[in-house]
């Protein structure tokens, strides 16, 4: 038994635990941790956020279009403002936010939030709050609009199915790795090759890409064969990944696929699955 325990502890040493100790304000209600984001905004007089106090929480109900907070959808309706300048906003005095804004006026704004809506679902403790603020219907419409993948059974383990557009496929050098992502996306856009509809399945271990009729397997790669994945900020609906002809640490030939999805949410999901599936995957986001 001691040897088994020692073996398990040895394996745990290889796991990169990404724990956010600040993400604790909902632990009285659920063990499921929400998505915690920390932002630094440029100094400004107004961030463009309208919020409401409900059950001790500061809930974003509106973000002004074109405002600092709205850039790249960093802050969205339904997000919970958790900390401002390092001070907790849970059950805070209603004048605290104004007081902190005046105190640090002219300085960068440091704000931490718990995301209310993330990759197709509402954070469960917030559902009754959304009902009270009439946010739920808006989020359901957003979910219908942005979710362009479905959960499917796959040999006993779950997989996600994505409808994508193949923009290009290139040979790359083995030493380029993540640096090639940007070049490949730019090359695919510049050459404007004939596109092709494809279906991607992502499981816990591998990626499979089929033609649109799912009659031909175009790519079948385990995560250990993927050396890099990522996207460009200027093209949030396009991503690329590089894979070798075998495990990437010993592979001699590498290719890069450039694909387009119908929403940045789907791409974020794919990249996150690849990164979690193979910890040595390089990120270029």
TrEMBL record:
Source taxon at top rank: Eukaryota
The protein's name: PID domain-containing protein
Domain PID intervals: 191-263
SUPFAM superfamilies on file: PDZ domain-like, PH domain-like
InterPro entries, sorted: PDZ_sf, PH-like_dom_sf, PTB/PI_dom
